[in-house]
Amino acid sequence: MTSCKEWDRQIPLDFKNWHPQCFETFLIGHNSIAVESLKRIQDFLSIYLWGPSGSGKTHLIQAVHHDLADKGLEGGVLDMQKTNSRQVLQKMKDNLSELQYLCLDNIDSIAQTNLEKDVFFLVNEMLEKRYPLVVSARKLPQQCRFNLEDLSSRLSWGPEFLLQTLNEEQTKSLVKQCALRRGVIFSDDAIEFLFRRSRRDLKTLMTTLDQLDHASLSAQRKLSIPFLKTVLNL
Question: What is the pTM of this model?
Answer without folding.
Answer: 0.76
